[in-house]
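Worked example
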Amino acid sequence: MQLPAGVEERIRTESTMWMTTVRPSGQPQPSPIWFWWDGTEFLMFSKDHTARLTNIAANPKVSLNLDGDGRGGAIVIVEGVARIDRSLPPARSVPEYITKYQEFLDSYGWTAEGFSVDYPVPVKITPTGLRAW
C-alpha cells in the first residue's frame, strides 16, 4: 500500500500507535503498541498469552491509529490483517526496531535482550486500507 508522504513520515517517526483487535464477543479492544514500519508491513512485539494474541488468532482484522492533533485533525487510521509469526527474529535482532526505541529502553532501564524476553511474540500487520485527514 502506498502511503501519502505526510502519513508515511508520521508512521516512520511516531513512537506509539493504538492497535484495536476484536474479542470473540465482538468487543473492540484497543491497546498501545511500539511498532516498526518497513514500507510494506508493520512489525510489533507482544507479551505471550495476551488477550491481544488470542483476539488476533480468532480474528486477524485490526486497525492501527495514530493520535490526532487534539482538534479533530491529523487523523491516521490504518486497517489491516495481523498475523502472529513466531518464526521471525526477536526484537533484539531487528536493528531498526531497537534503534527506534533505544531511548525508551534506556529510560526504563531495559536492554534489547530483556525486551526480547519480555515481548517474545512477533506480529506482522499488512495494511489493507487507510483513512487519513
